[in-house]
Design goal:
heterodimer; A: 114 residues; five-stranded antiparallel sheet; B: mainly beta; 11 strands; globular
């Protein structure tokens, strides 16, 4: 019940296209859903995060869509660029727990072709 | 933004020796620090959570006598891999969090045990 399932495992998108990565969770106690971007040999960096009281959050070219009833959330990258090529991880946490332990998805390796 | 550093960025050690990895929050006080392990092309797996001045809480399956964690100050946590073996070779990533704030990740430490 602590798992977060992420798909697809890998994704190739043409420059200028829309990249979509999906995640699903089981634990209804989760109330914080961040997305991280990781480049090879580097630590993950927070891209965007959402709380379950909203259905969508947009920051620049990055949008999170959240479906509470389906227990799913997704990352959309608009106008994808070669510099977006990286591994993306979704995660979930319960903010009520003081430590905020993050449960990560399996990761999606995104390649943007020029 | 908040910066978390790790030292060293990579280390090679011989089997049977111990190696210490440092994690520092450079511009904020971290009440909680986390240690993760990441194998190639895999997700981040939480190893342990540490709060300043108290003993670390280890995840199930993580040997606390092998992976010693010390969080002696609000800006420094250390992970010591004792009696390292080749199977301990991995990418170790720390993160730091202010009270009820988001987690900021370090750049990671590549450990190779020969």
């Amino acid at each position: 019940q602590q798992q977060v399932k992420q798909s697809p495992q890998s994704l190739i998108v043409q420059k200028g296209g829309i990249s979509i990565i999906n995640c699903a969770y089981e634990n209804t106690a989760f109330d914080y859903f961040p997305w991280y971007q990781q480049f090879p040999g580097k630590g993950p960096a927070l891209l965007i995060a959402i709380r379950p009281d909203v259905s969508e959050k947009k920051e620049g070219r990055f949008t999170i869509s959240f479906n509470k009833s389906a227990k799913q959330f997704s990352l959309h990258i608009m106008d994808s660029q070669p510099g977006d090529s990286a591994t993306y991880f979704c995660a979930a946490s319960t903010l009520k727990q003081g430590a905020q332990k993050l449960v990560f998805g399996q990761g999606t390796r995104l390649t943007i072709n020029p | 933004g908040a910066v978390v550093s790790q030292h060293p960025s990579w280390v090679i050690c011989k089997s049977g020796t111990s190696v210490k990895i440092e994690c520092r929050s450079l511009d904020f006080q971290a009440t909680t620090m986390f240690w993760y392990r990441q194998f190639p092309k895999q997700s981040l797996m939480l190893m342990a959570t540490s709060n300043e001045g108290s003993k670390a809480t280890y995840e199930q399956g993580v040997e606390k006598d092998k992976f010693l964690i010390n969080h002696a100050s609000l800006t420094l946590s250390t992970l010591t891999v004792t009696s390292a073996h080749p199977e301990d070779s991995s990418f170790y990533i720390c993160s730091a969090r202010q009270y009820r704030g988001q987690q900021y990740f370090g750049p990671g430490t590549r450990l190779t045990v020969t």
